[in-house]
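Folding Query — how this chain folds
Tokens — whole-number codes for backbone shape
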Amino acid sequence: MKRFLLIILIVIGLYSCEEPIAESSILKYSVENLEIPVSSNQLNSYQTQSSYKQNGNSILIGYNDKRHSLDFFNLDQGEVIASKKLEYDGPDGIGKIESLYIQSSDSIFVYEQGKLHLINSELSNKQSWDLFQIYGDLNLGVPQCNFYFKLYYDRDRKSVYFFMNPIGKSPEEIAILPLMTALDLETYEVDILPIYHSEYFKSVSGQVGFMTNLGFYGALKNQLIINYQYESSISDYHLVDDILTATINSKLQVVPSIPKTDDHIAYDEHAIENAQYLSPIPDPWRNLIYSIVWDRPRSANSNNSYLDKSQVLRVFDEELKLIKSIPLPDRTYQINNWFVNENGLYLNKAHPGDSLLNEDFLIFDVFKFEVN
């Protein structure tokens, strides 16, 4: 049973970071609450998930790492459809899934370390790609998808994209190595995209602590939308023109550098006390881009932890102009557990620091934006 609660309806003027947009430009948004009852076979939070449309219904598929299953939900009806167990071994064997992308009900791409699989809705393996074999001689690093760099299938180019993790490389080498590649699934050709770490990263010799991932969810109007965790800018890469464009009309904010150390506690403290710019989410239904800043705690306290970090939702237009920042309530949303479809932006209410968290429901706040 689905229960919707209309929480807020706000009409607000749009502002960029530096100058107001004309008063005639108005952003309206509302927030609706969706609660889906779950059993012990499902989770109340999925960091690996993807949504698609089937027979007029919005469907969410989440990877359940506790049961090694794919759990299917009808978002419009607010109910569980099925939970299907995966096999580790045999012809359909798949290891721990780190990212997935739903092309259709019969074409589900799943990524495990070193392998890409295409499976159908019955979880039968239709095709697999050995990424270590394909990328082995390129000396670019390890092709990965993860919580920050999502698996995305480009149907026009019949390609998927990977973040190149330069394991074992020096900061000087990392600064000049490409961060992103495209793999043609038909020809097995690897296209090296001219996307590198920023000038700021190079200026501090890559000493930004844990925040070295490239953020990526997908494309908007033939442009790949990306960001760096260590700075506030968002960029789009034009696939046709090979041009990389960054956000405009906004003052660049960066994470202060930290000396290289083997002390993980120092890196944790650095990450807790500074903003981390999480992956931008393109919204092709409204031509918007969403990005959440995982910011420092609102109050200074020596006992602060990751659970105390605040969150701010940023909304950009298709020209990469920041048009609104919305502070989010503390200890409410689980980071990276968000996605967008035609209904809106779904934020998962499953923060591990929420003492009132109800594990019997998969809960989302659905942000519905309307630009006039």
In short: Residues 38-196 form a domain with the Methylamine Dehydrogenase; Chain H fold (CATH 2.130.10.10). The chain has four helices and 27 strands.
